[in-house]
């Protein structure tokens, strides 16, 4: 890291952010903890006929109906079987509450603003557009997800086109 | 111009005054029936006065002026100086309309425009005692009880009436009355001073300061001329304006301090009997304390306003609690522990009670809608020169708040129809051997989990033949079809769009669109409409709506492992059938039931995601469950895997992401905590068959 950057970060008392990490396929991703309402074990998801493909269905969250998104499908990954560690993360983004299904949820990490780098422009487009940045922590790459984009305008037009 | 009033205070005013105005409309119509009822006159007077007080505080001058003039009219009425006449009522009612209109403007945070001067003049005219109109023109009358500052007219005038009102209320004893008569109208001018002291405690501190400067003698003169004034004024505070007073005390926190410094030098030298204003203030609350329990206790405010969304939240949680309870009940029945069984049993009872209590909080008496009808009937009978009375039954029937609001328009329409089309002119009625006065009956009653609303009249009734002929003329039916209709079916023609039996559309009804709208609205509420009529005897329209909108009766079905709910209103019948022998017309499968050909659809092909599971085997076909659903007058058959039964469900909206998914009306949570999708049958057919 270059020294001017470091200086800048320290002078701004370097904002510390908390991220919840989860795994999908072989990668670790992170979501800002403020957006995560809760993490649920996998429970039966009722499929919704006529819904977009990336919508797995709906679940009953204590009397409220919550839509669950197939994150693998959304990120252009191969589908996998539901396992014991499969979790549904209930997140609040763009003024709606949705669930995202992930392979497993790991921990909450503290990241300094200065540690976050913008994503290198590689990889397939499907997943690249949801990436806010990356962070190298303990020699592991953490991909930070931009949730608002996960349910952004494109999806609306997609919905409207049905 | 927008209002720059404190939003909280404005909201309080809107809510409170809104209720008063609603009440006023009822009371005014009642007044016409019993024009000499002093309680009613006082209630109306007080109503206008309270609205005026609130509006004055918010400085909505046009509203103040209109209310003030209306108030004056009732002041004259209660003093028996004038009799209630239909013309007077017309004026007062249009004043109420004007006030309502202004009120709506205020609601949208705008300053209303001044009332029609003609209306104000008319009110001022009626505010004069009968027979004295010629002696004093409205302007003179106004100036008679005016304080030197013309800006004070309104408050000062109002307070005079207050004081007199109180003395009238308190003392019906002859000497007091005599005293009052002596006083009015000549001593009014001197009396102005007395209210000036009321003014300080009651209405307007700012104005008061000016006034104290302007005519410093005010407080001194008051006790001398009218020893009763201070007592009366404190009464007034306790009764009407205590709240307003408190608001003022809080809102204009600076008031008392300023008043003290200003008032003391003025008042102190005058007279010992005239207490400086600030000490008088603290005296008022104790007066309230001693008075309130004695007179006003039963009307103590026990209500709380709650946002309906909060109620929905509670409802939701109660629903969850019920599910947890169900699970516990199941567990409890497995265990042999008697204590556990007892506890679960208790929980069972408590949750059931809780559920019904929460349901009840959403309920409102239908009076809220019915309340406006006396006025409507009264206006119609005057404008159409008919004679009719309205009878209301079961006003206390409770139903869901949303439903109360949704029913208002259709009911208004039906009542207007009854009055306009149903009830004949008095002469015609007499000729037919009926009472001159027509009767419209509006009734509500609960029947199980439904509400029955009946609008009946003893008017001319409907002629099925005329209806049929009209429908044929309009090209809505051919002659053959019309001939086959039963009378009952013919009556239902009135709901068809564009049909009217009136040759001439009036401003009341007769354009042929209203009933169509009524029908649509009622079906939106999952309700039904029935018409009964007998020529020459009258008509009756019966509306049946569910008690609440939140709960929908459905038929639960199964497709593979997933549960779906079909709205029961759409379901006509269910049967088992060997559909492998279904006929094919033009590539579409159809079945024939009782000589009717219905298109047949396999819901599984539409609604099961996994293509491998969509196909239906031969064995399944031979013993298929067919649900016949109706959309409008069209029927179709749906093949389903399994029938679960009838269930009342709470509709939960799908999230924004899934909103608008074709064929789905929402979701619901079944008794075992799983999710069932509620189908929107017209949408479903539209999307998957691409028809219509």
Automatic annotation (TrEMBL), chain A:
Pfam families cross-referenced by the UniProt entry: CheW
PROSITE patterns, A to Z: CHEW
Source domain of life: Bacteria
Domain spans labelled CheW-like: 16-156
Cited InterPro entries: CheW, CheW-like_dom_sf, CheW-lke_dom
Designated name of the protein: Chemotaxis protein CheW
Species this chain originates from: Marinospirillum insulare
UniProtKB/TrEMBL annotation, chain B:
Pfam families per UniProt: CheW, H-kinase_dim, HATPase_c, Hpt
Region entry Disordered, spans: 130-156, 177-236, 248-303
UniProt catalytic activity: ATP + protein L-histidine = ADP + protein N-phospho-L-histidine
Protein name in the entry: histidine kinase
EC number: 2.7.13.3
Compositional bias of kind Acidic residues: 199-209
Record has Kinase as a keyword: yes
SMART domains in the record: CheW, H-kinase_dim, HATPase_c, HPT
Domain CheW-like: 551-690
Keyword tags: Kinase, Phosphoprotein, Transferase, Two-component regulatory system
Boundaries of every HPt domain copy: 2-106
Organism: Marinospirillum insulare
Polar residues biased stretches: 134-153
Start-end of Pro residues biased regions: 275-285
């Amino acid at each position: 890291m270059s020294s001017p950057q470091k200086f800048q970060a320290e002078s701004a008392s370097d904002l510390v952010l908390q991220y919840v990490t989860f795994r999908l396929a072989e990668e670790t991703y992170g979501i800002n903890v403020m957006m995560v309402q809760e993490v649920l074990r996998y429970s039966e998801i009722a499929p919704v006929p006529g819904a977009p493909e990336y919508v797995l269905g709906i679940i009953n969250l204590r009397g409220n109906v919550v839509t669950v998104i197939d994150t693998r499908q959304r990120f252009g990954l191969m589908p996998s079987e539901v396992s014991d560690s499969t979790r549904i993360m209930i997140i609040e983004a763009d003024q709606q509450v949705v669930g995202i299904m992930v392979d497993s949820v790991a921990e909450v990490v503290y990241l300094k603003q200065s540690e976050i780098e913008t994503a290198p422009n590689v990889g397939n487009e499907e997943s690249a557009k949801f990436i806010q940045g990356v962070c190298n922590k303990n020699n592991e790459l953490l991909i930070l997800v931009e949730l608002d984009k996960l349910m952004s305008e494109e999806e609306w037009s997609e919905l409207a086109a049905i | 111009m927008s209002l720059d009033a404190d939003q909280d205070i404005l909201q309080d005013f809107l809510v409170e005054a809104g209720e008063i105005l609603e009440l006023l409309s009822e009371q005014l119509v009642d007044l016409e029936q019993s024009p000499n009822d002093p309680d009613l006159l006082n209630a109306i007077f007080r109503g206008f006065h309270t609205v005026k007080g609130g509006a004055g505080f918010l400085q909505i001058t046009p509203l103040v002026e209109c209310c003030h003039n209306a108030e004056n009219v009732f002041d004259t009425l209660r003093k028996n100086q004038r009799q209630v006449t239909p013309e007077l009522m017309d004026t007062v009612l249009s004043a109420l309309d004007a006030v309502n209109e202004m009120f709506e403007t205020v609601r949208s945070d705008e300053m209303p425009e001044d009332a029609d001067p003609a209306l104000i003049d008319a009110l001022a005219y009626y505010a004069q005692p009968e027979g004295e109109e010629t002696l004093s023109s409205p302007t003179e009358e106004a100036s008679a009880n005016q304080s030197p500052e013309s800006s004070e007219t309104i408050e000062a005038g109002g307070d005079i009436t207050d004081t007199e009102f109180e003395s009238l209320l308190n003392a019906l004893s002859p000497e007091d009355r005599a005293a009052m008569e002596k006083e009015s109208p000549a001593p009014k001018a001197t009396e102005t001073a007395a209210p000036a002291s009321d003014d300080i405690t009651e209405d307007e501190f700012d104005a008061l300061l000016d006034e104290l400067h302007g005519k410093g003698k005010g407080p001194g003169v008051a006790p001398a001329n009218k020893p009763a004034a201070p007592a009366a004024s404190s009464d007034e505070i306790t009764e009407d304006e205590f709240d307003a007073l408190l608001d003022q005390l809080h809102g204009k926190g600076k008031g008392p301090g300023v008043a003290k410094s200003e008032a003391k030098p003025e008042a102190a030298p005058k007279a010992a009997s005239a207490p400086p204003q600030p000490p008088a203030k603290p005296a008022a609350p104790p007066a309230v304390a001693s008075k309130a329990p004695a007179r006003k206790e039963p009307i103590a405010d026990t209500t709380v306003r709650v946002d309906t969304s909060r109620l929905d939240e509670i409802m939701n949680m109660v629903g969850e609690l019920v599910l947890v309870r169900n699970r516990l009940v199941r567990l409890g029945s497995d265990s042999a522990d008697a204590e556990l069984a007892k506890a679960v049993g208790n929980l069972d009872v408590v949750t059931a009670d809780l559920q019904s209590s929460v349901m009840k909080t959403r309920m409102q008496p239908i009076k809220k809608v019915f309340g406006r009808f006396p006025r409507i009937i009264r206006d119609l009978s005057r404008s159409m020169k008919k004679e009719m009375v309205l009878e209301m039954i079961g006003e206390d029937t409770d139903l869901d708040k949303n439903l109360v609001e949704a029913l208002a328009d259709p009911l208004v329409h039906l009542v207007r129809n009854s009055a306009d089309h149903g009830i004949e002119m008095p002469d015609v009625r007499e000729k037919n051997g009926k009472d001159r006065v027509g009767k419209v009956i509006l009734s509500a009653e609960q029947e199980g989990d439904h509400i029955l609303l009946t609008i009946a009249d003893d008017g001319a009734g409907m002629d099925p033949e005329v209806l049929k002929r009209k429908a044929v003329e309009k090209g809505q039916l051919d002659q053959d079809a019309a001939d086959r209709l039963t009378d009952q079916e013919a009556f239902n023609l009135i709901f068809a769009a564009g049909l009217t039996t009136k040759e001439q559309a009036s401003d009341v009804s007769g354009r042929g669109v209203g009933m169509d709208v009524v029908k649509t609205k009622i079906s939106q509420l999952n309700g039904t409409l029935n018409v009964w009529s007998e020529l020459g005897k009258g008509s009756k329209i019966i509306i049946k709506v569910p008690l609440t909108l939140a709960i929908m009766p459905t038929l639960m079905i199964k497709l593979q492992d997933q549960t779906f709910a079909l709205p029961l209103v759409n379901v006509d019948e269910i049967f088992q059938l060997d559909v492998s022998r279904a006929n094919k017309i033009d590539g579409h499968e159809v079945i024939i039931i009782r000589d009717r050909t219905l298109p047949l659809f396999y819901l599984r092909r539409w609604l099961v995601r996994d293509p491998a599971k969509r196909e239906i085997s031969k064995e399944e076909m031979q013993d298929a469950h067919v649900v016949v659903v109706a959309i409008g007058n069209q029927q179709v058959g749906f093949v389903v895997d399994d029938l679960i039964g009838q269930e009342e469900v709470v509709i939960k909206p799908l999230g924004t992401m899934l909103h608008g998914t074709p064929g789905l009306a929402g979701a619901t949570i079944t008794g075992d905590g799983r999710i069932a999708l509620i189908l929107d049958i017209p949408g479903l057919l539209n999307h998957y068959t691409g028809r219509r």
